Amino acid sequence: MMPKTRDALAAVIDQTQLGLGVTRAEMAAFVAKAVEHRFGCVCILPNMVALARRITAGSRTKVATVISFPLGADVPGVKRAEARDAVERGADEIDMVIDVATARMGEAGAIEREVAAVRAVLADGVLLKVIIEMPLLTSEQAVAAALAAERGGAHIVKTSTGFKGLNIRATTADDVRLLRSVLQPGTGIKAAGGISSWPLAAAVLDAGATRVGASSGIAMLDQFAAVTGPSAGA
Length: 234
What we know:
By secondary structure, the chain is of the alpha/beta class. The protein has one domain: Aldolase class I (TIM Barrel, Alpha-Beta Barrel), CATH 3.20.20. Helix content is about 45%, strand content about 15%. It is built from ten helices and eight strands. Strands 1-2-3-4-5-6-7-8 form an eight-stranded parallel barrel, surrounded by seven helices. Helix 2 packs parallel to helix 3 (about 50-55). The longest helix is centred in the middle third of the chain and has 14 residues, at about 75-90. It starts with 5 loop residues before the first helix and ends in a 6-residue tail after the last helix. The model has no long low-confidence stretch (mean pLDDT about 95).
């Protein structure tokens, strides 16, 4: 659903900081800004989860962290352990990268099993997002991976890591439409990777995304307000 207010837009953005070598002071400032702007979630590296949990306490901003990021090549047991540790540190949401090779090889059962293995260690109420890295897959591979993730217990299927070091294309509205056409209505879709402005966010939300992952969430909110006017600020 297209947000009608700045606050509604902030609620569906996962404000993201997954940079290398971010210090505690830098992360504290980032998370505090996210809380100030009322983002629905901050998505950060596992080593900063406890810090973010303290800063977001009492706010609506949830804490998400990534598992097996960015390559997804860890074995399922490692992913399970990583997810369990993240939840113990205070993560509300887990963004897990699948083993992309299994998707490219058509091994849907392996994807379903590793997603189920991670889902099994999550406490009730902890959200599981599964990143299938669509830019590296054919449409058929992406559909098979998304459905396998859904069967394994994913609450949300995420299009991409958006990791710049992988030199992959940006997520598109067509990616989201493809996922929406095959996933159950109750399964969410997170569009991430190259979603750097309000027009790009609007396109993926209109296509059926329920979340947007971005490092430029504040700029998006400002662009939204500039387009919609002050009456949409609340």
